[in-house]
Amino acid sequence: MTIARRTHDDYVMAAHAVLAERGPECTTNRLHTLVASKLGLSRSTVYRQWPSASDLDTDLTVYLATVSRGWVQRVLDQSPGVGLRSALEPALAGLGADAGVAARVTVSSWPTTSASRDVVAQHEIDTMRHLGSWLSAAEPDRSNVPWTDVAIAVYVYVEGWLFLESVLRSDPTEPWSSVQAQRTSETASTLVLELSEMVAGPDAPIALASEAIGPGYSPAQSRILEALADRSIASRAGGDLARLVDLEVLADSLAVSSRRLHAVWPTAADFNLDVATASLMVLRARVDDLTLRTFVAATAGYDKFVGLFESTFQAILGGSGVAARVWFGCSSSFDDQHVRQAVASLLDDWYEAQRVALFAALQVIGHRLRKPGDGGRYVEAVFATVNGALRLSTLHPALLDRTVTYNGQTRGSLPTAIDAMFRSFTEHWDGEPVADGPATTWAPPLPDLPDVAGSS
Questions:
Q1: Is 352 left (phi over 0), alpha (psi -120 to 50) or beta?
Q2: With the CA atoms of 74, 79, 82 and 84 taken in that order, what torsion angle do they form, in degrees rounded to the nearest 10?
Q3: CB–CB of 286/320 below 8 Å?
Q4: pTM for the complete prediction?
Q5: What single DSSP character describes residue 211?
Q6: Each residue of 227-285: pLDDT tens digit?
Q7: Domain ranges (residues) in the chain
């Protein structure tokens, strides 16, 4: 029997599978040396605190993911009386790589057996709880509003937008501008208004399977981690890039020699580029397939669209878990310029495809934007919210079972965040002229429908 010769794509997808099972392994052998050099310490001092590079890398990631200087803490430090928009804008302005977003994305891809993963998950749950309490205090006259679910929606949107921005911007260390902060805080405030008017029910706490215990750093470890949090160690990439997957492990899974894999990928940059781009394409294919089905259903009218919207996004979030986890695991390779550029280009393509789909859906179901000129912000906000919900569901799969009463119906909390973002930008339109001018859809013309013969 002839055994089919493996193709390059076979090797890439095998690496994708290993990454899904084990999570990223990006620690370089030179990490201790680089950290010691950055902080002016001896290598022996660093080794005494962390015997292996993996130990140091894990602790540093956890520290960054839970660091108290993130955007939520900046909001919580302000009086609820100022309102979310006024509190969020200065919290985001000037925010940089120290916000912990990239670290939380990385932790989302770690195996579920990781104790450190549980520590970050618990910290994030507590963060959302506190944000819900803050939002409740900001609106003391609004009763019967599940503010924790409103907080989840805000958190999903902002975290999703920060993550996408960190990938798309040419310099990931560049702080957010005041203009970006203003746009994002306005959108978040509008989302809160939509939700607070449309959701109802008791404010149920977020449950976690187990209460994680913190890592308990020694004073020396805490000082070193705090110093590292203030100094970018992106230079660890330098000339000693680490591969997302250990080639020895990958070779075992393929029953080939590691020499063969080194021939396929001569450098770590080659390897990471292939795996990162493949991971995004796998995730996009999953999301686009379900989005297309919803779009086709929308041709039957608004009621049909609404009926499928929640179930579609619940399926996207619940059924894309492994694909999303692998994609988020690749984020640790984005410090490499070539990987970043390739991934940013693919994200731009995906964004443009979503732009067409979202505007086409408006035309089909008889909706339009609430304000002319908001098209770009509408697509950005929905795209960010979907990505943020995907990220949150990978670290907190229990949130997929959380429900809320939205617009009189029981809905999933995470799909509700996406739906509410959609609704906060749009309104029903019957085609009649508006008071101050001719009829307008405030959206581009409807594109030709794709051929979906046989789709169900």
A1: alpha
A2: 40
A3: yes
A4: 0.90
A5: -
A6: 888 765 544 444 467 899 999 999 999 999 999 999 999 999 999 999 999 999 999 99
A7: 15-428
